[in-house]
Amino acid sequence: MRKLRLATALATAGVAVAASLAVGAPANAAVFDFQNNISERYVASNNTTVRLYAVIDSSHRASYAYVTRGYGSVQARAQCQRGDGRTSWYQSTINASTGGTSHYDCDNNGTYNRAVVGLGVDIH
User: What pTM was estimated for this model as a whole?
Assistant: First the structure.
């Protein structure tokens, strides 16, 4: 009987977690990642157009997403590099809409602070 209660509790918890994850991710979100590519580009999804570009100078390494038109909101994504060459993707917590900019700074990212090597955006 105890095993049955535990299995039922675990199943119920699993359904609750799955439901909360489904609510947290909009169905119409679109992610564009350009791995190992920091070329400026425009991407569009859900009637929203975004200009992706990198800002790289002696003290700043970041990915930017500027919303040129549309009704969606966006969050910039950056592929940041460590000193040993390994990379990982990170997403800004800054939501931007038309006329706004979201950015992610690799230079302020702990051990993944060597370079920005890829650009991306989450449009929702």
Answer: 0.77
